[in-house]
């Protein structure tokens, strides 16, 4: 059974290709998120250019908005294409701009889209980034592979099912990690001596 309390999920997607498969998977993720009673905001990183880290970053209103959305979110879902065996560069630029202290303890789900099972690597790499930020990753890994050019016929039902399961997990984790996030904030506020 799914908890009644709605959660705010920030969906970040990082593929700039026209007619991006990754974008359509991100839209499906938003529909499935609504299906478990949560709300989602889709940030397509291709729609506005984030500055490179340390390059006019503080003047970017898009960046301030993105950071505020990440801080408000109860959880995030990162949807990436697989490029050369990993996740996309624009997604990495975005994640580098986010503050770890605002993300610590938040649940993160990952979806990777690729032409082969190499896409699993993109998912693994992103899960390592999530752990580096102190986030809690949803156990189910969702990877969408289109190795036969049959995209127009719809997504593999197994991949769709894993996306749904990951979203259900994320929704549950958002409730379960509330306390974790509060204690992380309290620990951050303590003077250094009290940590020892
Ligand atoms: C530069 C580049 C590198 C790619 N490298 C991989 C790869 O290593 N493994 C893989 O499975 N697919 C790879 N692909 C294929 C894409 O992951 C695949 O086409 C995916 O659907 C891209 O999503 P998009 O339609 O949103 O661009 C690559 C595509 C590009 C353009």
UniProtKB/TrEMBL annotation:
Q: Which InterPro entries match?
A: Flavoprotein-like_sf, FMN_Rdtase-like_dom, NAD(P)H-dep_FMN_reductase
Q: Which residues form the NADPH-dependent FMN reductase-like domain?
A: 8-146
> Matching Pfam families, A to Z?
FMN_red
EC class (word): oxidoreductase
Q: Which SUPFAM superfamilies match?
A: Flavoproteins
Q: Which GO-annotated molecular functions does the record name? A: oxidoreductase activity
Enzyme Commission number(s) of this protein? 1.-.-.-
Which superkingdom is the protein from? Bacteria
Supply the alphabetized keyword list: Flavoprotein, FMN, Oxidoreductase
Give the protein name, as stated in the record. NAD(P)H-dependent oxidoreductase
């Amino acid at each position: 059974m799914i908890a009644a309390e709605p959660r705010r999920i920030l969906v970040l997607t990082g593929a700039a290709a026209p007619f991006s498969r990754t974008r359509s998977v991100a839209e499906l993720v938003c529909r499935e998120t609504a299906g478990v009673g949560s709300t989602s905001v889709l940030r397509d990183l291709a729609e506005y250019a984030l500055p490179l880290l340390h390059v006019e970053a503080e003047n970017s209103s898009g960046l301030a908005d993105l950071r505020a959305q990440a801080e408000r979110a109860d959880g995030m879902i990162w949807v990436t294409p697989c490029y050369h065996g990993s996740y996309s560069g624009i997604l990495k630029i975005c994640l580098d701009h986010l503050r770890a202290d605002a993300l610590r303890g938040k649940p993160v789900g990952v979806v990777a889209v690729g032409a082969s099972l190499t896409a699993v690597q993109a998912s693994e790499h992103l899960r390592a980034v999530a752990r580096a930020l102190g986030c809690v990753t949803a156990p189910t890994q969702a990877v969408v592979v289109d190795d036969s050019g049959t995209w127009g016929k719809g997504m593999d039902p197994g991949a769709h099912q894993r996306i749904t399961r990951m979203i259900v997990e994320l929704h549950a984790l958002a409730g379960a990690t509330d306390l974790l996030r509060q204690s992380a904030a309290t620990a951050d506020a303590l003077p250094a001596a009290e940590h020892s």
